[in-house]
Every structure is written in structure tokens, then in C-alpha cells.
Design goal:
This protein is of the alpha+beta class. It has 15 helices and eleven strands. Helices cover 49% and strands 22% of the residues. Strand 5 and strand 6 form a beta hairpin.
């Protein structure tokens, strides 16, 4: 520690040591904060995706020719699965009408027919509902419609759609909406297959691709509308106890249900997105570690100057019987001291800053551009430990050359000329 305090006429060495320590602290601070924010974004995105996507999807390759009860009995033999529910899905056209019963707005969407009652797969969908409830899919609501200029009140099944799609169609709670199967329009023969629903619920996920396209209706109503749709997707939605065990369970299901079914887990369905997030996090780690690397080079310069400044003391120690390894250890300890103190300050500062950002939402984002209104933060000990270990190792590596330089100094030559 005394060697790091330069003589009065050589204060520049101490200044460089302080700059080196500050560089390590700044690098580890920035790195821990960025890793906490990136982890928060990744988990928030995963949570939003899985609110509308099952952990595992077992899809029939035969479209509507699918017996869910038989497949469910086979699936129940696989441990780790919490629930399974049938679904159908296809592209549809949504049409709203004005007071005169004339079509007003048209938008494309994805229709999902689900079982709403006691369906654990839809548990997270409940958290995104702004209006209505899931049981609206199993109920009929009175709605005022106009047919050929005559107004009447009819009972229509409920539907739940995203708030962005409702805004695009000009719909409010209780308004009727017509869903048309595009497949029935392709041949140009016969009447198009369509069905009226009433808006019984609105959801907001914060992800525009879902809020502007998804339409949930009951399974039986969806099957009635999409019966002859060649684009119909039919299968089972599965929820597992351990989210990260989904790939392993999915592989086991694929072997169990060989032929006629395609098994896809949530990591495969969003593989490109999560791979990009992992690559981005790793890139940030490497780029910000360059700050620590620059500080490590400063440590090299600092310790080399200390060695040159203290060469007479080193020569005296060697002539008094100190071993070369002991002299080298002095400068290794100096590098370790700079690294440990700088890393401790940076990691502690990053921990406190990340906690405050997450708890008090200090950084706000425009909700119309991002899926969150504030920067999400997740604190994991492994991130902070990894940053601390990497920084200390770099600082120790930086001290190797000055330690080797001090070890190889010849005390005889130094005493002879100085």
C-alpha cells in the first residue's frame, strides 16, 4: 500500500493509480447496470410472449381431424405437465358495422378458439384484460344489429380482442363484430362463411403484434366458423411446471406422439428473438469489458512506473535476502488491491443503482413506442459475481508484467550505478 503512495515529488504515479481504480469502478458499474436491465427486458418479454403462447404446442398435421381427448390421455403419462387444452387457430377478417348496418371498417386478424372454463393455459391472459372476463367467451350477450334497415336485438356469443384491433375497427364493449373465414371467399362459389360476435372483453399485452391481431372466441364457435378452412391449425396447448424444462418435455412428447403431430416448445417458436437477445447481452458484456480492459492497461502503466521508482528499495530488499518471488508478489498484490477495490466500488454502485431503477422506475419510456412504460430490472447474483470475477482476473493479469519486471531486476547493477 505504501508503494502506491508516490513520493512528494512524484505524485503523478498516485494520480495514475487513482485513475486506474476509477476506470475499473466505472467499467464494472456500467456492466452490472446494463446486465440487470437486459435481463429485465428479456424476462419481461418472455412473460408477455407466454401470456398468449403456450409453453408447448402439440399441433395436428391433419387440421380438423383431431381427437383431443385421446391425445390428452397419452400426454398425461408424461411428468412435468400441468395442464392441456385444445385450441384451433386461423386467419380471419374482422368487420365492424355502423348504425345503419353497413360495413364500416375491415381488418385482418388471427382467430383462436379456446376453452375458457378452468383453463390454466390462459391464466396469464387474465392479467392483461382491461375489460370483461374470460367467461365472456362462453356467454351470449344481447346486441343491437341492423338487417336490411330493420333494427333488432339478438343474442351473440362473446369475443375478446386486443385494444389496438378494437380501436382500428372502431369497436367498444358490447358492439357486434363480424368474423369471416377468408378460405370461404377463395372459390367464389356459395355464400361466405361468417359469424357474428359481440365484443365481450379487451386485453392489452403491450405487444402490438398481439394487440392488433388476436381474437379469442370459444372453441365450438371457432370450429363452426373454420370447419372447412384449409389453413386451420388444430391441436393442444400445454403448460408445464418448469418453464425451462419445456424443450426436454417437448422432445419426449415428440417421441411419444410420433406421426400426425408436430410438437413445438416456446423456445422454438421464438428462437430467433431470444437468440438475438442473448447475442445482444453477450455483445454488451464484451464491449463494456473493454472499459475494464483500458483500466487494466492503466494498472500496467502504474505498476511499471512504481517498479522504476522503487528500484533502489527493491535492490536493498534483494540484498537483504528477499526472494525474487516475494518481490513479484508485492506488485501482484498491488494490482489485486486496485482491482478488488475498484470492482467492489463499481459492483456495489451498480447494485444500488439497478435496485433504485427497478423499484422507483427512474427511467421512463414512451409506452406507444415500447412495450413497457419504464425500464425493467432484474437482479441476479450470478451477473454481479461474473462481472466481479472477470474484472479482478483482468487486473491480476495486468499486474503480471510489472511483477515479472520487478523480479528480474539485478540488485548488483542498480546499487553499482545508483
Amino acid at each position: 500500500m505504501r508503494y502506491l503512495r508516490a513520493r512528494r515529488r512524484e505524485r503523478f504515479v498516485s494520480l495514475i493509480a487513482i485513475i486506474s481504480l476509477a476506470g475499473v469502478a466505472l467499467g464494472t458499474f456500467a456492466l452490472t447496470v446494463v446486465l440487470s436491465v437486459m435481463t429485465g427486458f428479456q424476462e419481461d418479454l418472455r412473460q408477455r410472449l407466454l401470456a398468449f403462447n403456450p409453453h408447448i404446442t402439440v399441433q395436428s398435421t391433419n387440421g380438423a381431424a383431431f381427437d383431443p381427448a385421446q391425445v390428452t390421455r397419452r400426454i398425461d403419462t408424461v411428468p412435468g405437465i400441468e395442464a392441456a387444452a385444445p385450441y384451433v387457430s386461423s386467419q380471419v377478417m374482422a368487420v365492424s358495422t355502423n348504425a345503419a348496418g353497413v360495413p364500416a371498417y375491415v381488418a385482418g386478424g388471427v382467430l383462436r378458439g379456446v376453452v375458457a372454463k378452468n383453463n390454466p393455459v390462459l391464466a396469464e391472459l387474465k392479467l392483461t384484460l382491461k375489460s370483461g372476463a374470460l367467461d365472456a367467451l362462453d356467454r351470449d350477450f344481447p346486441a343491437a344489429v341492423t338487417d336490411q334497415g330493420a333494427k333488432r336485438t339478438v343474442e351473440l356469443p362473446g369475443a375478446i380482442i386486443g385494444d389496438s384491433l378494437a380501436f382500428e375497427l372502431g369497436l367498444r364493449m358490447g358492439d357486434p363484430v363480424v368474423l369471416i373465414s377468408p378460405a370461404s371467399l377463395g372459390g367464389g362459389i356459395g355464400a361466405p362463411r361468417l359469424r357474428r360476435f359481440v365484443l365481450g372483453g379487451l386485453f392489452h399485452s403491450g405487444m402490438f403484434q398481439y394487440d392488433s391481431s388476436l381474437i379469442f372466441v370459444s372453441l365450438k364457435n371457432a370450429q363452426a366458423l373454420l370447419a372447412d378452412d384449409p389453413q386451420l391449425e388444430s391441436g393442444l396447448e400445454l403448460r408445464v411446471r418448469d418453464l425451462f424444462a419445456a424443450p426436454r418435455i417437448g422432445a419426449r412428447l415428440a417421441r411419444l406422439l410420433d406421426g400426425g403431430f408436430t410438437v413445438t416448445d416456446w423456445t422454438q417458436a421464438n428462437e430467433a428473438l431470444f437468440s438475438a437477445l442473448k447475442l445482444e447481452t453477450f455483445t454488451y458484456f464484451l464491449v463494456l469489458m473493454l472499459i475494464v480492459l483500458v483500466a487494466a492497461f492503466n494498472i500496467v502503466a502504474t505498476l511499471v512506473m512504481v517498479v522504476m521508482e522503487r528500484r533502489k528499495e527493491i535492490a536493498i530488499l534483494r540484498t537483504m535476502g528477499a526472494r525474487a518471488g516475494s518481490v513479484a508478489a508485492i506488485f501482484l498484490c498491488e494490482g489485486a488491491a486496485l482491482g478488488i477495490v475498484g470492482t467492489a466500488v463499481g459492483v456495489l454502485g451498480g447494485l444500488v443503482t439497478s435496485f433504485l431503477i427497478g423499484k422507483y422506475h427512474l427511467i421512463h419510456l414512451p409506452p406507444d413506442m415500447f412495450m413497457v412504460s419504464a425500464v425493467p430490472v432484474r437482479l441476479y447474483a450470478v451477473n454481479f459475481v461474473a462481472v466481479a470475477v472477470a474484472a479482478v482476473v483482468l487486473c491480476l493479469a495486468a499486474a503480471l508484467y510489472p511483477a515479472f519486471k520487478a523480479r528480474t531486476l539485478s540488485p548488483v547493477e542498480i546499487i553499482r550505478y545508483e
